[in-house]
Amino acid sequence: MKFQTKRCKYEDLRYTDIDEAVKLFTNEKVRKFLGGPISEEAARAKLNSVIGSKDICYCAVRLIETNELIGLIIFTTAHNEERTEELSYMFLPEYWGKGYAYETLYLFIDYAINILDLHMLFAETQSANIRSCKLLEKLEFIYDHTLIRFGAEQKVYKHLLEEKYMEIEPDEETDEELTLQW
Predict the structure, then answer these.
(1) How far apart are the C-alpha atoms of 151 and 169, rounded to whole Å?
(2) I need a surface site. Which of 3, 59, 137, 151 has the fewest CB within 10 A?
(3) Whole-structure pTM value
(4) 10-residue block means of pLDDT along the chain (182 residues)?
(5) Exposed, middle or buried, 25 (CB in 10 Å: 0-12/13-18/19+)?
């Protein structure tokens, strides 16, 4: 799977991405609402275990300009009760608030609608992670319910996928035109 926006590109995680991706799992700010940072060894083991998996897809998000890995998008059925697809994401703190997560997730949702022909996506985030909740709502996810998982209150959001999705205006913060290239 390969996507590209004006500023980012993302494709399936490869073994050559692991050295950079480990930063996401060991960073305290990134992992604040994800159970805390894990050791470099545990992060490498986790990343190695998901490459090529049929049950989970990790996509490396890179800046086009520098080729630097800035985040991961994760697509799975890992732990939601309905066994429908779930969307997760992690971005390095220095890229927060700049529209990268919105930009890349927006196109991933379009891919889920128009290529994968999905009709619903779920996303789960800690209730305390206000920025993530706001991002999901901006992407037209609707709050569904709250549960306790991983020792903390989680908000579960769902997105009823419709072909109209690409009619949403580009991100006002970046004023970037969004384009999709598969």
Answers:
(1) 37
(2) 151
(3) 0.85
(4) 90 97 97 94 97 91 98 79 81 97 93 86 94 96 92 93 56 45 36
(5) buried
